[in-house]
Structures are given as structure tokens and as C-alpha cells.
């Protein structure tokens, strides 16, 4: 994880049914909302279930659900593609360590890589 990644703060926005969703737009007003929870970018262990893809501002993104913590995370298509190519995607789920990185104005989920 790079020093810039360690500085990132991640915004989790409240949804219905007790779920939270990770806000991908780094300059979003939601970072200052009382309904949001700000967490540091610390690598975490999770089992994520593929939910769906979505059209972002420039590229396609992927939504992943962590049923244990009731959180929905967003990643680039690269995470899904890498999981498929390495045969890690089993029944729509991937396990491992994850963290976030900034790409332009987006903050996205990725596999954690030690440096």
C-alpha cells in the first residue's frame, strides 16, 4: 500500500435494511453528512459476493456485497476480471484481503498488495 493510499478516508453511506454503501466519488458532499461513517484505508479480510455492474462517469464498475458487515463496495472491472482469470471467483464470491485506491476522482476497492 502506497503512502497516498494510507491517507485515504473511505465514506460509507447508510442505505435501507441496515446496509452501508461505499461512496466512490472522493469529493462528494456525503463525506460531511451525519448519515455517513468515515473509515481509514486499512486492509481488511472479507468474502465478497458479486452483485452487479454499473456505469460510472467514464468506465464500468462492479458492486460487491460483504454480507457479514452488510456493506456494499465498488471496484473497477479489473478486480472482477482478475478474479475470473485466476479462477478465484467461486459461486460469485471472492475471498481475500482488500483495500482502496484512488483513480482520478474515484476511490475504488482493490486486492491488498504488500509492498
Please tell me about this protein's structure.
This protein is mostly beta strands. It has two helices and eight strands, in the order H-E-E-E-E-E-E-H-E-E. It has an eight-stranded mixed beta sheet. The longest helix is centred in the last third of the chain and has 9 residues, at 77-85. The chain starts with a helix and ends with a strand.
Brief description of this entry?
This protein is 12% helix and 49% strand.
Strand tally is 8
* Largest sheet: number of strands, sense, barrel closure: 8 strands, mixed
What is the oligomeric state here?
A: single chain
Intertermini distance: 6 Å
Strand order across the largest sheet: 3-1-2-6-5-4-7-8
DSSP helix fraction = 10-25%
Order of helices and strands: HEEEEEEHEE
Structural class by sheet pairing and helices = mainly beta
- Specify the number of helices: 2
Low-pLDDT ranges: none
- Give the integer mean of the pLDDT values: 90
Radius of gyration using CA atoms only? 14 Å
The number of domains is 1
Q: Which key features would you list for this structure?
A:
mainly beta; eight-stranded mixed beta sheet; 2 helices; globular
Explain the layout of strands and helices.
Elements: H1 3-7, E1 9-14, E2 20-22, E3 36-40, E4 44-55, E5 60-66, E6 71-76, H2 77-85, E7 93-103, E8 106-111
Parallel strand pairs: 2-6
Antiparallel strand pairs: 1-2, 1-3, 4-5, 4-7, 5-6, 7-8
Amino acid at each position: 500500500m502506497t503512502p497516498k493510499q494510507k491517507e485515504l478516508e473511505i465514506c460509507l453511506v447508510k442505505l435501507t435494511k441496515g446496509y452501508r454503501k461505499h461512496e466512490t466519488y472522493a469529493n462528494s458532499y456525503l463525506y460531511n453528512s451525519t448519515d455517513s461513517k468515515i473509515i481509514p484505508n486499512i486492509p481488511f479480510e472479507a468474502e465478497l459476493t458479486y452483485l452487479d455492474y454499473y456505469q460510472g462517469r467514464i468506465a464500468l464498475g462492479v458492486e460487491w456485497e460483504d454480507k457479514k458487515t452488510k456493506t456494499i463496495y465498488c471496484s473497477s472491472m479489473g478486480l472482477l476480471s482478475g478474479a475470473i482469470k485466476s479462477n478465484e471467483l467461486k459461486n460469485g464470491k471472492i475471498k481475500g484481503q482488500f483495500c482502496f485506491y484512488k483513480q482520478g476522482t474515484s476511490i475504488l476497492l482493490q486486492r491488498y498488495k504488500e509492498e
